[in-house]
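Q: Can I see a sequence and its folded structure?
A: Here is a first one.
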Amino acid sequence: MKKNRLLRNSGLQSLLASLMCIVVGLLVGYLMLLMINAEGAGEAISTIIKNFMYYPSGKAQLKYLGNTLVKTAPLLMCSLSVLFAYKVGLFNIGAAGQYVVGAGACLYMALALNLPWWACLLGAIAAGALLGALSGLLKALCNVNEVISCIMFNWISLYGVNMLLTSVKEATSPYTMNVKSVNPGALLPGMGLGDMFSKNQYVTIAIPIAIVVSIAIWVLLEKTKLGYELKATGNNKNAAKYAGMKENRNIILTMAIAGGLAGMAAGLLYLTGFEQWSCSQASVPAMGFNGIAAAFLGGLHPIGSIFSSFFIQHITAGGAYVDKTLYCAQVSDFITSLIIYLCGFVLFVKMALNRRLDKHDEKLAANTKEGGNK
């Protein structure tokens, strides 16, 4: 009985389900590597798992660990965006578009308006929140499914931002100008964090900010009246209305907060100077979509998302070190995509586990009752 009570713990179930999906994903990926080239399969899967540990030098390992953390912070924010909306009964597949407008806002404010980092970051949050609120408005007032409106906004956002940032791109390339050379004040402060990672200049306060926001989202959802009202509205809009809650306001507010988180994700990446925006890209960045996987792999818990976001970014970065003479570049993408896909089965595994535990408890109760009658 004690074992059953332990297995019914939601946190433990999420951990076990996530580990199962990770192991299955790596195993299937390894089998695919064996089919392509058996000789290098073991080394290839090991390289993906190692990531920054691939380097023999301790300084190099710390430097590339820093790079992984730089990409983990925005992925975590996208994960929180998806998670927050899902907890309130909405599926924010528009995190990708909200991320895009956040990138457009912060880069334009940094490169064209020469504003400081905090203003650019607030601009990214506001842009994402506005786009999210539009989807929420359509859902609340016109009953337009948020998935449909979000998908449409993803593409509108991409091409709109491409046009906007053309005015601040380099003359000889499709990429935006380097923030560090144009407006160093727009870069996020390092606060000495870079020294911990072999003077990696891209390691900034983005990492602690993302962790603090994760904790704040958990507190909001689980410990506040507003969080209770938001979840109640998501569970049953009509019941929430009957109880005196402003259901339309809550839907719009939920999508605005989710959008703000995704917009903030872009700010936490592009204001480090780690990447430049390509004004010619024809596909929505994968960061917003990967946030869906990180949210489910983390068991739809803000703290779990911290670890799941790091893991997904870890294997994604590790895939870049696979020997390209033995395997094509798409092999690493396939393995990481497979694991990300399996993340969607975390809730299914938890549900299957609970059903099995229910049957076991029913059988145990029946045996106990039968023994008592005798």
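Q: Show me another, different protein.
A: A second, unrelated one:
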Amino acid sequence: MAIIREVRGFTPRIGRDCFLADNAVVVGDVIMGDECSIWFSTVLRGDVNSIRIGDRVNIQDGSVLHTLYQKSTIEIGNDVSIGHNVVIHGAKIHDYALIGMGAIVMDDAEVGEGALVAAGAVVLSRTKIGAHEMWAGAPAKFIKMVEPEKAKEMNIKIAHNYLMYSRWYTDPQEEQPTEDNGHK
């Protein structure tokens, strides 16, 4: 069972139909929307400041979300995908954004609606990534614009896929993968 713990008088609030993996950790001032999935070995540490998560957000295995005491907070919009082993430290992530595996997004950075942060990117403090922009590298730099409808479609698909995956753990009747849908 996931660790959900009160800290400094703040108890995490989890929306409806959320999946928290057995070894996920959610502590303190965390408010999570509906149909989110928090995967294995993921830590949401709302001990020093607030973490706010929208609906249908998936935070994949090994990711860590934390903030600076009395300085930075985390805000994540709806239909956002946070890849495996991501660190988000006091940043704002808008709707339909995708943060690639192993990326780091630092304090007071902002990732715009439908933006893509490439795997392994390091988004420095106070960086502003505009809507539908792709950034990559360490430190992350603008690469190109992403077609808004394609980015939204892709990110909604990923968010819905992770919702489906999470239901495999809670509902044995949920659709199982077949070779037809690209899973083996």
